[in-house]
Structure formats: C-alpha cells, structure tokens
Amino acid sequence: MPLPPRPLYLAQRGPQLLAGPITAYALTQLAHRFVPAYESTTFQTVVAVLLSGPILFALLLSYDDVKNYFAARVLGARLPPRVLDYSPGNVWSIVKELRAVEAGYLTDGIEENAEYCGGYVFNLRILFQNRMITLEPEHLKAVTVVYEWR
Questions:
Q1: Residue ranges of the domains in the chain?
Q2: pLDDT value at position 150?
Q3: Which of 4, 37, 107, 128 has its CA 20 to 30 A from that of 137?
Q4: Which residues cross the membrane (predicted)?
C-alpha cells in the first residue's frame, strides 16, 4: 500500500526542514564540549534551535538572489529593478493588489510599481518567488506570438 501524499511530502522535505535545527543543536553541543570557556544553558540551546530555521531560510533567499545575479552576469544581462517590500513573502504587496481589485481598479498597484522602479519591466517577489512583470508593448507582443503556437 503506497504512502499517502502528506507523509511522503514530509519524508522528502524532512532533511531540508531539519538541517538547521540539527546543525544548531550539534554546534552548541560541540562548543560546550570542546571550548572550555563556553557554557551553554538549555535556554540558549532552545533559542538557537528555534532561530536556526528562519536564519537558514533568510540565508537561502540571499543565496538565491546572488545566484540569479551571477547567472545574469554570465549571460551579459541585467536584472530588472525589484519592488521593495519588507513584509515576509511580500504579503503587503498582495494585500495592496487585492484592495485595488476590490475597488475596481486593477492596474493601480502595477502603475505604482512601474513608477517606483522607473520602467515597465520590474521584479516583484511574491511568496518568496521572483515574478517578472512587463508592461512593454513589444514584450507583450512577443509573448503573445510564442503562446499562439503552443
């Protein structure tokens, strides 16, 4: 009998999810054992383990940004400007867009972002994924031609 999808998903993602806490716990235990001046309390160990997940996630996001930057440099390209939103996962951008939709003005937020970035091509990171937005007529024509042939 095959496993249901939820345990199978957790089994596949388990090493990624547990890498940070296990590493933080191992480092605190190694430091406690091999560094004579270091004395860790249980509270410090728990805090290190709990903060390791968000810290690892932030490092992976930064690594993704650097990787994309160097991939663009290798190809001789430039990354489009990014809409800055400091909420986790750019949730505030999603809320602003939903409010614009409720008001009946679908493109208000997009025009605002285009003005902020100084052009009609920009990067909007939504839920930790990069989304390239273009409003350039020539780009839209090219995309339309490509998708007509599929």
A1: 5-75, 88-148
A2: 52
A3: 128
A4: 43-63
